[in-house]
Amino acid sequence: MSIKQFLSQNQYIQVRMDVDSWNEIIEQAAKPLIKGGFVTPEYPQAVINNTIEYGAYYVFDEGIAIPHARPECGVIKDCFSMMTLSHPLSINGSEPVDIIVMFGGVNSDSHITEGIASIVGLLEQEDTLSQIRRATTIDEILGLL
């Protein structure tokens, strides 16, 4: 399932959020996925633990973070959430980010191929990223995907 299909059906988008720490970014991005039954409440802590151990390997130069953990860390069903920040913030020493796409895949194949391919397709469109950053409503973001 593509990120657009998933977010259109589930609308797990949070716009212009105010957060104070990188841990809060992870926890906030995971909230709708936990509430929807897509990941366990332990999933965001697994992402945080990975970030502490391995660094913010999921941060890209364009100010985008794609936090995730392995399927066995609490993924129940394939899922995505998207969040934009009101101000860019560094994740554990990374370049500042202001677009976060959290995802979970139930197995390594979907985790790597479908999830990342959907997100990379979105990230390759610089104009779309600029418009996502300026968006103030969920509907605006859905229209851009």
From TrEMBL:
- What is a single molecular function from GO for this protein? kinase activity
What is the first-listed, main subcellular location in coarse terms?
Answer: cytoplasm
Which part of the chain is the PTS EIIA type-2 domain? 6-145
Subcellular location(s): the record lists: Cytoplasm
Ordered alphabetically, the record's keywords are: Cytoplasm, Kinase, Phosphoprotein, Phosphotransferase system, Sugar transport, Transferase, Transport
Gene3D superfamilies noted in UniProt: Mannitol-specific EII, Chain A
One Gene Ontology term of the biological-process aspect is: phosphoenolpyruvate-dependent sugar phosphotransferase system
For this protein, the record's PROSITE patterns field holds:
PTS_EIIA_TYPE_2
- Gene Ontology CC: cytoplasm
Q: What the protein does? A: The phosphoenolpyruvate-dependent sugar phosphotransferase system (sugar PTS), a major carbohydrate active transport system, catalyzes the phosphorylation of incoming sugar substrates concomitantly with their translocation across the cell membrane. The enzyme II UlaABC PTS system is involved in ascorbate transport.
Name of this chain's protein: Ascorbate-specific PTS system EIIA component
Origin organism lineage: Bacteria, Pseudomonadati, Pseudomonadota, Gammaproteobacteria, Enterobacterales
